[in-house]
Write a structure and sequence with these properties.
Length: 459
């Protein structure tokens, strides 16, 4: 079926951009060869987790002849078994009998609340205060870095099935992080000279027009913010809509803004998400990269390790080598976060270490700027350095790349090896009675887990 027959939605993203939402899923999954029952289950999953894609992604990145076995299809389309049958079966039955929308939405919301929508203390621990009032839409977890979530940038050109920011996109106001109060953000930054880097994130800030993006970026170049050394923009647009930097009506205006940031003496870093080598293949991607780099901006690359999509060393070494050839800087391999369908996509930490090591050992030193596998946890970014045998014990060797407590950065520590472990909470300390980031035993009242203790101290 031709895609234009599906009645795509116009999103104002420039000539040629067409977005497809959950209402198009039945036709699109039929194109992948899914039977009616499976398509119904996929629609049920999409009532809980978000779905959005576009023409460029559908025609340039997916191998439709492989159907749902294609890794890019799995990256972009919900899978029938992403969530438990106990959660999805009742919703599928509601869809089949044509239940009222409100009944379906209520059931979907119940499931969402069980999926840890905001992991690592994002709402309880990371929201800063200005004049004794919370500053919504801003996260300040590490002393030197502040994250800003522009209100107009809380969607994407297409959604990844594994996305840990899924709660931003499901229409739940209580779960959304967003701000349009640039003045308060600027005041907060002026009052915090320890902040040297601002990350504008989402969603995807590059969904915004150049004019709106300028409203958030330009104030960071003003007086009183000389301590801001770098401005980062987190985006998947190079993979999902490279035309944003090529042929969109405001592509040139966007690049001029990057020019201005560099000319103001700030480092401009585009934090690009590439999850699979195929995302780097279309010629538009290389052309967009050349234009961005011509402004003096640096492009750093990152992605999580995802089962069924990129969980082999060849995929990562191919990505890193291609990225290097295009002038990009490999930055992070992340571990799938403890939210949403983590159980479906997670790779055991022991296997993650093997994949990272095998890929890392097959690339040149210029690619070895990459770090990982890294878990973005409540106390900080925990890197799994490897598996070792020490004093007769098989253990994970770990260290903190970043931490709420800066004194913990770089300190090695150990955990008992567990072949099933996929996250920090699955691990037990080795050669010690607690991990370095855990509170002192005398500070605990009863059997309170360390994450709950951190949350309690923030409340």
């Amino acid at each position: 079926m031709p895609l234009h027959d599906l009645g795509p939605e116009s999103s104002g993203q420039g000539r040629g951009f067409r977005a497809y939402s959950a209402k198009h899923l039945d036709e699109l999954t039929a194109r992948a060869g899914l039977d009616q029952a499976t398509r119904l289950a996929v629609r049920a999953v999409a009532t809980v987790l978000p779905f959005r894609t576009n023409d460029y992604v559908l025609e340039s990145l997916i191998d439709w002849s492989a159907g749902q076995a294609d890794p890019m299809y799995r990256l972009l389309f919900p899978q029938a078994d992403m969530l438990s049958a106990e959660d999805i079966g009742p919703i599928a039955a509601m869809l089949a009998r044509g239940a009222p929308d409100e009944e379906i939405k209520a059931a979907a919301r119940e499931v969402r609340m069980r999926l840890n929508p905001h992991p690592a203390g994002q709402l309880a621990l990371n929201v800063p205060e200005l004049d004794d009032e919370p500053l919504p839409g801003v996260q300040h977890k590490y002393p030197e870095t502040v994250l800003v979530f522009p209100k107009q940038g809380q969607t994407c050109h297409a959604y990844c099935t594994y996305c840990f920011r899924w709660a931003q996109f499901v229409g739940e106001p209580d779960l959304k992080m967003a701000t349009d109060d640039v003045a308060r953000v600027t005041c907060y930054l002026q009052a915090h000279p320890e902040v040297t880097s601002v990350l504008i994130t989402g969603g995807d800030p590059m969904i915004m027009s150049a004019g709106v993006l300028r409203r958030y970026v330009e104030p960071l170049l003003g007086p009183g913010l000389e301590h801001i050394e770098s401005i980062r923009i987190g985006t998947k647009s190079l993979a999902y809509w490279p035309h944003r930097f090529l042929t969109d009506p405001d592509a040139d205006d966007t690049l001029r803004l990057f020019d201005e940031v560099v000319a103001a003496g700030k480092s401009t870093a585009v934090m690009a998400h590439f999850t699979h080598p195929r995302e780097l293949e279309p010629p538009q991607v290389a052309a967009a990269i050349r234009r961005i780099r011509s402004t003096g901006a640096v492009i750093r690359t990152q992605a999580p390790l995802i089962r069924g999509i990129n969980d082999d060393a060849a995929a990562w070494s191919s990505m890193w080598r291609t990225q290097l050839r295009l002038g990009l800087v490999p930055y992070y391999m992340f571990v799938e976060r403890d939210t949403g369908p983590q159980g479906y996509f997670a790779v055991p930490l022991g296997r993650a270490v093997d994949i990272f090591r095998d890929a890392y050992s097959s690339v040149s030193g210029l690619c070895r700027t990459v770090r990982g596998p890294s878990m973005s946890t409540t106390p900080g970014k925990v890197c799994v350095d490897g598996v070792a045998e020490i004093a007769g014990q098989k253990v994970f060797a770990l260290h903190m790349i970043q931490a709420r407590d800066p004194s913990l950065v770089g300190r090695p520590f150990f955990a008992h090896y567990d072949p099933a472990a996929v996250w920090l909470s699955d691990l037990r300390p080795a050669f010690a009675d607690r991990f370095p980031f855990e509170p002192e035993p005398e500070r605990l009242i009863g059997p309170v887990p360390w994450e709950a203790e951190l949350l309690a101290r923030a409340s």
